[in-house]
Fold this sequence. Notes:
With 503 residues, this protein is an all-alpha fold. Helix content is 64%, strand content 0%.
Amino acid sequence: MAASPPNSPGDRRIGPKGPFGHLLRDAMEPRNGRGRLSYADAVERINRIAKLRDGKRAGYSTATIRNWIGRWVIPSHLTLGWIAEALEVPLQDVIDAADAAENERYKVRYGQSGDTTAAETPADSHPAASTSPTSQANQPAVTPSTAPVAQPLLTAAQLEAEMKRRTFAQYLALAGGFVVFRPDIIAAVLDGTSQVDEALADRLHMRSLQYMQQWDALPPHLLLSAVVAHLDEVQIALKCAKPDQLSHRLHVIAAETAAFAGMLGWFLQNRGLAEINLSIADDYSRITGHRPVQAIVLAIRADFHSHVQLGRNVGSPIARTMLDAAISAAGTSPSPLRAWLLLRQAEEHAVIGEQRQTYTLLESAETALMGVRTMPDGMFKHWNSDMYRAFRGNCEQLLGEYNQSILTLVPVLERIKPDSVSNRIALQADIAAVHARQGDPEQSSRLLGQALATAAKAGLRERVRRVAGIRLNLLTSFESHPTVRNLDEQIRAAIAAPHESPS
C-alpha cells in the first residue's frame, strides 16, 4: 500500500508524549523502502493485521492514533503486537516503549513516593537491580550470618528490655489471642541456663504460623514489625543450638518466616526490605533443600517485576520466567502453593492475550487445589475455591471476557469475609476494571474509591498502586467525569500521605 501524501486530511500531526508516542511517530516516518505513513495509513494497517492475525474487528480510527501519540494512552498487549507488525517495528521495542510510558505517566500524574518500587522504577529496565538468580550470581554472597536485617540480633539483656517495651498485649493481638511464646525462654537460652529443644522449636513454629495466617487481616507494617522480631528470635535459637540439634528444623522455620517477611515487604512496596528477608529465606532454604520456600521467594521476586499486580496492561517476560522456575520448584503434588503459582502465571499470560495458555494454567491450578483435603497451617490456611475464582475472574477481565468476569467475581465479593482486607480490595479493583472497559466510569470510580480508602487505611501500598494503575490505564477517556476527578483527588492524597514503616 502506498503511503498517503503528507498533506492528506488524516495527516494533521500532533506532538508526541512519552516514549510510546515518540516510538509511534518515528515508526511512521519513511522506512524499509516505503514512504511516510499518514495516521489513516497506520490505522488501516493495524485494523487489517488485527483481522488477519486474530480475527478481531478492531475499528481503530485516526483519533485512536492521536491518543496513542499525544495523550499517554497505552493500548493492550494484544494491540501492541498488531502495531509492531503493522508499523514494522520489533515487538520488544514496542513493549519496552509502552512500559516506559506507563511508568513516566505514573510519575507525572502522581509523583514519586521516595521508595524504590516496581511502579516507579521498573525492574525490567534496570538489569543491575534485578533480583533474579542470574544477576545475583555476580554480586557478593549474602549469607544469613552477614545479611543486614531490619532489627539486629539481641543480647540477653537487650532482649529482655525489648520484650518489656513490646508488651504482651501487642503479641496477644498479633498472635490471635494465644500465648505461644515466652521471652524469658530465649533469654535463658542465651544465658546458657536452658537449651534449644523440641518444645522451644514447637513454640517458634506455632508463632510463625499464627503470624502467617493473619496476612490478610492486619496492616502489613504492624505485622512485619512482629515477624522481623520473631525472625531474630528464631535465628538466636538456631545460633545457640548444638551441632545438628534441631538444626534442620530451625533452618526451615527461619526460611519460612523470612519468606513471609519478604511477602509483607511486597505489600508495603518496600523492595529493599523485602529483598533483605527474601535473601535470608533463599539462603536458609538452600541449606535445607526446602523447595517450597524457594518457590515462594521466586514468586515474590517475580511480583516485583510484574505489572499485572499494579493494574497495568503490560506483560513481563522476567516475571513469567521466574514464575516458571517457582512452579518447577514447588513440585507437581497438589497444594495451595502450586495453585497460587499457577494462578499468578495465568494472569501473566492473560495480560498478553494468550488465551489457550491462560486456561491451561487455570485448569492445572484448579486440579492442584481440588487435590488438597485439608489446607496447611500458615499463609494458605484460609485458601478455598473462591480464591481460585478470584484469580480466574481477573484473567477473564484481562482477556476481554467482561460479562463472564462479572459473573465470576461478583459472587466471590459478596461471600468474602469482612476481615479479608487485601483480597476484598483486589476483587473491588478487578470488578472496577471490567466496568471501566465497558464504559461505565461512575461505577468503576465508585468501586476503585472504596478499594482505595480501605487500602490506604490498612497501609497496603501495593493495593493503592493497583487502584492507581487501573485508573491510569482504563479511565483516561473519562478524565472530565466528576467521579473520575474525585477519584484522582483520592489517589493523590493516598500516595502523598506518609506511610508507616516497621519499627
